[in-house]
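Rotation project, supervised by the postdoc (A.L.). Task for the rotation student: set up a whole-complex structure prediction and record inputs and outputs verbatim in this book. Inputs entered:
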Amino acid sequence: MWKQIGGREAGQIRPNSFSNRVKSNRVSSLQLSNYKDIVSPHRGSINSLQVDLTEGRYLLSGASDASVAVYDVQRATDYEGGGLIAKHKSIVVVDKQHEQGHKYAVSSAIWYPIDTGLFITGSYDHYVKVWDTNSTQVVMNFKMPGKVYRTAMSSLATSHMLIAAGTEDVQVRLCDIASGAFSHTLSGHRDGIMTVEWSTSSEWVLVTGGCDGAIRFWDIRRAGCFRVLDQSQSQLGRRPPLLERSALNKVSTSKSLSVGQNLSAKSRPQQRKSTNGNGVKQSPIGRIPAKASVRQRLHPGMLSGQDRATAHYGAVTGLKVTDDGMYLLSAGSDSRIRLWDVQSGCNTLVNFETVRLQTSKAIQIATGQDPALVFVPCMTAVKAFDVWSGKTRMAFRGHYEYVNCCWFSSQDQELYTGGSDRKILVWSPSRLISDESDGESMKDQDNWSD
Amino acid sequence: MEEERGKVRALIDMATNSTEREVDPRLLKAIKSVVRYSDPELRLAAQTLMDLMKRDHSQVRYLTLLIIDELFMRSKLFRTLVIENLDQLLSLSVGFRRNLPLPAPPAIATILRSKAIEFLEKWNASFGVHYRQIRLGFDYLKNTLRFQFPNLQANAARIQQERREREIKTKEILRNKFEILGQNLSTIKQEIQSTIDEIGECLDIIRAKEENMVLAPLDDDDFEEFRSSELRQIRLDSLKEGEKVHENNDNTVVFDALRELYKLLMTKHMGSVQESISVLIRVEVPDNRLRDSMLKELIDIRNRLLSVKKKCEESGCALATNVKEEEEEDFWEEGKIGPTEKGSSSTPIKPKQKLQNLAVASTSGEIKNEQSDNNELCKTDSNSPRSKLLSEAPVVEWGSFLGNWGLDRDFMANQRGLELDNHWGRVDYDAVIPAEKIAELNLQATFYKEEPVEIQPCRAPLRKGGLCQRRDLKVCPFHGPIIPRDDEGNPINQKNPSSDENPIQKNSLIDDETSLDLGSDLSEHLSEQLAKQAIQNVRDREKEEGKKRKIDKQSLNRAKLAKVREHNEAVLRNAALVSTSRSEAVGEDIEVTNGKKSSTRNKKKTLTSMLRNKVTTKDRLAQRLLNTRARGATTRQLTMGEEDTYRENFPNQW
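Outputs recorded:
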């Protein structure tokens, strides 16, 4: 620590890497926080957790008893145990007593990405509601055709205010806050949609995972889905080979370009498989002329072989795009976690050492940037895996029932987990030594009588 | 190091391998002392203990939990180690997960659970602040699963609190009383003083009067007469006595006043003084001098009161003595009634009694002194006139009419002993209700009441000792028909079990029993019964023989069939076993262990023996089924020789 600070002082370490080192140090020492208690007012299992993206200060939780609560994770409401334990009580609660509250379980509660003045909840009572945080009143109401499993808003969006809602229904609906109507109805899934996620690299790209085991990519400016992830399409390692990648980059960045001209023979199969499909029938090499036409023909309603591809056996229960937007992590009811290269659309074949995942419910995965970790609720524990190797780095045991959701706040390097035991637990880096010495009372010591 | 490592593990293993309710204190001490000085040992201990908690035996888990608690309360490192897997520990000790119930001996499992909950509460109370996990576990068990925690600490704290509050309250009250006393002391003193003065005056008056009236000259004469000191003493006493009670019409008023004052003194003033003294003793005041001075004063007052009281009593006016006298009178009256009644009732019947006595004497063949006999009879009350009369007397429900039982006279209707103004006009005071009318009015309706029948207890001997105390009319559901039994519960008329079916015979039997002392009857009955018995016996034997023959035939048949079957099975088994050489040993092996088991059955209680329930019939069946193979192996060897003959006899079998 001191060495690093010295290095930083001398200018040997760049500010970025310094902060990254400190962060990764802290992250590696995550443990159940003893001094930070979130007092959950929920009487049902916690289904959704999110810390706001603007300040990193307000935690939003949605629970099965149709209640939503907001906590201030920075400032405690009161202290206990001689100031040792900080209690964070909810500052806003919306429950069934609220006249506009949800009737059934809240499956998803998210912040409006650019402001904490609004939050959005989706519930099993078929409604997606937009709330004003300050007045706790419903500003907007969207009636869905079925139970809402997950809602999402793009954190990058500058040109749209769309809530993507995954429901029991096979169609993904995009609710426009600006107009109060559905702006898109995306059809393609063959079963309910468990999870939706916006890309973190493009504001137009939406990823959805359904109970049919498919993960679909949608470009909301165009009709239909443009990619279905196939678990059998795989690449080894983090990146596609260098040559292909450069070609691919060009292709993906300039989609409108006529494709054929830039393509080398090597890159083609990769690209065809991933973006255009139809690779099953065609031999991978030597079909250059057909390319453009195939692409045009295929994109709107890709041909059946590609269209039926599945990413998981069983339902896709969780999706998470990494912060850089290059990779997608998915969890399925087959108890697998897969890491997908977004650009190539390939399964990277990282073997995550999960034991078992909850199958009946959507789970919320969280990622940490440095070091690249993915936090996955595995039954009663949350496990942190290394994204690239799939090795278990940490296991967070504290819940007494299934964990449904987790959220990693990269600002504070804190992990929040919510489970069916109605608790929200905070996992934070161990405190600095100076804090510990005076905070730890004399009571917790060895006490040998003989 | 390696030995050391083994040490704590061995110790823990030893400590948990016991059927006791407690961990052996010496072993526990050894574990603690080993673990105390070395962290790796502690880690190893934690690991071992967690492993032991996973054992499929509640007793092991229970003892392990006890050790864990011991270490948990002492070592911080151990706490941190255990805390990491607290949920696991809890699920193993409390068994709250449905898919992981507590293992076998259910009795200990419940103890284990309650102990675990108790420990969790304790841990939460002492270390909850430092470990979120403990709080979480406690909260989960308490608020989500709604386990009932013993709440020991909270209860103790509450009781303490209550006691403290009570003490504070009493102190407050005492202080208030003290203050009030401080204000009122002077008035109380005045009051007491005035009463005492009044009493003194009254006494003076009485004494003055007495002196006037007292026969002074008599004294001198008497003194001369009675020389001996004892007599003089008696004389003096009597004189004093004479001095005392001189209440007559003149001084009644004075005496009354004196009595009143005395009463006042005793009840009010004495009480208040005593109370205030006790208050002063108990109260805690910063300034002790005032209290002490007050206390002194009060004690003085009390002493004075006591002296005045004594004086009063000496003067013979005391109220208490008066009351006593009245009581004595009552006693005396009662006593007087008793003997007169006795005398009146006993005198007229005496001759009759004598006659009876004579009769009794003649029958018993004893000649006794009449007097003694009479006394005896009076004592025993068996034949006394009173009991005789009682036996004759009708039993009547209690009622007001009993007051004039047997009075055969008219009643004055309007004279009730109370002079009441009648608002409803004139009253005829001479109105009379005739005696017949009264009798008619007092006519009692009688109701038939069923005689309570005493149901005999079954008195069959119970397996756990004692006799069956069930009371059924005829048949006890557990022990069959109720028959007379002796003190050990054996049926008395065991010789004739068939008597149950034959009511006449039974009756005769009972008769027989009751009239044992009647010689002639007995012999008659006996011969009759013997004859019956003989006939019965003969018949029974015949029947039995017939049955036996039948059974024999059947069993013979069955045995033959069984033999055939066994033989067939043996051949089949042989064939099967021969095909695999290894399995041949199995049978013998089982047999050996089986034999051993029977021998160890009476050995010391072990952990496995705790797991094994009492051997039920089901178990026995299972055992037998499992052992058919073993038995088969032995029988096979034994019957090897016989096989040849069978083969000859039954060619249609193998």
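Student's summary: Residues 152-213 of chain B form the longest helix (62 residues).
Supervisor addendum: Chain B has a mean pLDDT of 72.
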